Structure formats: C-alpha cells, structure tokens
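tokens incoming
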C-alpha cells in the first residue's frame, strides 16, 4: 500500500530543483559574459583613423609613377667630330634664338673641308682634260671620214673611166674589176669610219657624264661638310632655358653626340610607367590624375609604348593644365590611371583596413564601441573606396589596419 510522501521531503526536492535551475542560469550568463569578453578587445582612440560613409563619385585607378618632362625640349648634338673648347652658358640659364652655348674646336673638320676642295678641283681639271682629249679624237675621226669620202669620189671616177675605156677598146675587164674592187673597199672603210665616229660621239658623252657625276658627288660632299661646319656653331634656335650641357672641356665628341638640352619651361608633359600586369588595361585616351605633393592635376594618356622593358610598360600623359606653376622638370610624381567610374554611390575614405578583397570585414564605430561587420567593396582609388553593401550613409568606419584584432566581434575604444 502506497504511503503518502512527507511534505518536508517534497519541499526539499522543490528547493533543490530551484537551486539547480538558478545555478544553471548563472553559469549560462557567466559563460556568455566571458565569451563576449573573450571576443572583445580594447584600443586607444589615438591609434585609429575613421571615415564617414557618404554619397559621391568613385574612380577606379591603377597606381603608376611618372616624371615631369618639358613638353618641348630641343636636344642639340654635335654635327661633326670635334672637341669641346669652351662652355659659354651653364644649366639653368635662359637662352634666346641665336645665342651661343658651346664653342667647339673645328680644326680637323676644316682641314677635311680643304681636302674636299682640292679633290673637287682635281675632278674638274680631269673633266677639262678628258673633254679636250675626246674633242681631239672626235675631230680626227671626222677628218678621216671626210678624207675617205674624197677618196671614194676619186675611186668612183676611176671606175667610170675604166668602163669608158673598155667601150672604146682602150681598157680591159681586169681594169674595170680592179677599179670596182678598190671602190667597194673604200666604201666599206668609210662605213667603218662612220661607225667609229658614231661610237666616239656616244662614248664621249658617257665618259664626260661619268666624270661630271663623280665631280658632283665630291661637290655635294663638300657642301654637306660646309653645312656641318656651319651647324657646329652650337647656338639655340628658340627661346627657352638651358637644362643640360656637356661640361667636359677638352673632351672629344663624336658626330651625333649630345651637347646640350634647351627646354621650353612654359609647358610640361608626363612620362609615366607602371607594371606590365596592367598592360591590358593601360590604353590611349584613359584619363589620369597626377599628384604633386598636395596638388592634383588631371590629364589623359596620349601614347602607350608597344614594347615592355624589364616588366615595365611606359606611356605619355598630356596634362589639362600643362602650365601649372607647381610643375618642375624631372620631378617624380604619382600617377593614377582611371579605368572605371561610379557616380552617386556610397563611399568611404580609403585606408589600410581595405585589403583589396571584394568581401571583407570592417569595424563600424558607434558609442565608443567598434562592431565587426562584413561589407562588399567595389571600385577604389587613393582617396575613396566604393561600398556596395554592408554600410549605411552617415556611419563611421575605422580605416586603420585592424588585422591584429580582426577576430574580435567588438572592440572598446578608449578615449
């Protein structure tokens, strides 16, 4: 038979269950608390930089380097083999058209010029001698031809006389045959002389033409050398600034060797270069942004060199404001090539926290706590990063590198 449970026992059992339940809740709350503490770090506010999510335009850019070059720069080379006698101007000096820059010793070329003059005089003298000789030969051939014509006329008369004598019985057939043969031989000799005369006339023209052509070549060589001697007066042919000069006085320079550079410093362009990884993206016509310290200038790529050297692709940039006062020759600048653009999109200031991945985690700062949040990133440049999703306009994002705390769900910001 069942016995009734004592009230005291029932009360103890209920109290025990309550104690176990309360302890379980306390343990659970403590676990959650310590788990959150384990996922929460602390960082000082002075060590972070933040950016506000805003609406604006974002241009996707490729990073390149560039050098400022005068848009118009004249390179003056030595037209002859010579030596540097004097340096008349130093780099940085303004020059005017016709102003001398370098004085060259031209003595060797002047001696060579005199040699060419003598050779040309000899050529012209040989032409006169040849013309006189050919005229004499031609005259002799013409006289012989005339003498042969007179001889033929005599032989023709003898032939006619022999035929008349035979008719009257005063001559024989042998006399006629003899006279006829002499006439035929004389006629053949005349044809031979006429052929020689024609050949002499033709060869005279050809021989004279060949010799005159040789003299013409000598004359052109002399003109070229005299022109080089004139150009060896190293002067500026336009207004500008002397940016470089070969200052090695006494040194020999070869023909075509650079002596000086004169630049028009009123206008500039950019010679840029970047990694060949971007070779398929760098194209003529793409807009660029050039950064000179705190100054930003815009322009466009006007030429992309077809060859790649040492993993580098080179290009030229024409600036919209090529006369900006901040531009200086040979200054190194940062060049950003714009390959894409998004308008009226969410953007935030670029910083080390953005690692180039399409999806990544960032920390959103609010009320002294930074909360970890996944975002989707779009276009980027040196100023801004496009935010496709994960953030709202007006939110504050930590843009400092947070990789050391990247696994923390929340980070306390110490003021």
């Amino acid at each position: 038979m069942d016995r009734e449970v004592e009230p005291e026992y029932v009360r103890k059992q209920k109290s025990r269950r309550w104690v176990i339940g309360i302890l379980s809740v306390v343990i659970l709350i403590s676990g959650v608390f310590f788990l959150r503490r384990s996922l929460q770090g602390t960082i000082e506010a002075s060590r972070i930089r933040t950016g506000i999510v805003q609406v604006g335009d974002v241009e996707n850019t490729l990073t390149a380097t560039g050098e400022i070059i005068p848009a118009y720069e004249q390179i003056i080379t030595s037209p002859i083999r010579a030596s540097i006698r004097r340096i008349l101007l130093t780099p940085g000096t303004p020059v005017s058209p016709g102003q001398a820059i370098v004085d060259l010793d031209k003595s060797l070329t002047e001696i060579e010029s005199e040699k060419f003059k003598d050779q040309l005089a000899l050529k012209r003298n040989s032409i006169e001698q040849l013309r006189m000789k050919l005229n004499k030969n031609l005259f002799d051939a013409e006289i012989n031809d005339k003498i042969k014509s007179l001889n033929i006329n005599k032989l023709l008369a003898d032939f006619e006389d022999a035929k008349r004598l035979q008719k009257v019985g005063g001559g024989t057939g042998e006399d006629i045959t003899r006279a006829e043969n002499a006439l035929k031989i004389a006629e053949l000799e005349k044809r031979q002389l006429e052929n020689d005369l024609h050949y002499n006339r033709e060869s005279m023209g050809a021989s004279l033409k060949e010799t005159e052509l040789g003299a013409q070549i000598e004359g052109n060589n002399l003109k070229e050398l005299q022109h080089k001697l004139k150009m060896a007066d190293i002067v500026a042919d336009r207004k500008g600034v002397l940016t470089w000069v070969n200052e090695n006085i006494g040194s020999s320079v070869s023909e075509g060797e650079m002596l000086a550079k004169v630049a028009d410093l009123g206008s500039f362009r950019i010679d840029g270069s970047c990694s060949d990884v971007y070779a398929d993206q760098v194209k003529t016509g793409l807009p660029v942004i050039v950064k000179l310290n705190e100054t930003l200038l815009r322009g466009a790529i006007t030429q992309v060199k077809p060859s790649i050297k040492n993993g580098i692709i080179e290009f030229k940039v024409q600036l919209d404001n090529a006369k900006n006062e901040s531009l200086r020759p040979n200054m190194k600048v940062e060049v950003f090539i714009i390959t894409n653009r998004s308008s009226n999109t969410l953007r935030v200031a670029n910083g080390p926290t953005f690692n180039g991945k399409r999806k990544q985690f960032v920390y959103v700062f609010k009320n002294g706590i930074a909360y970890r949040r996944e975002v989707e990133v779009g276009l980027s440049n040196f100023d801004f990063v496009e935010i496709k999703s994960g953030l709202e306009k007006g939110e504050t994002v930590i843009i400092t590198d947070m990789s050391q705390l990247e696994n923390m769900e929340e980070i306390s910001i110490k003021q």
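note: The first strand starts at residue 40 and ends at 44.
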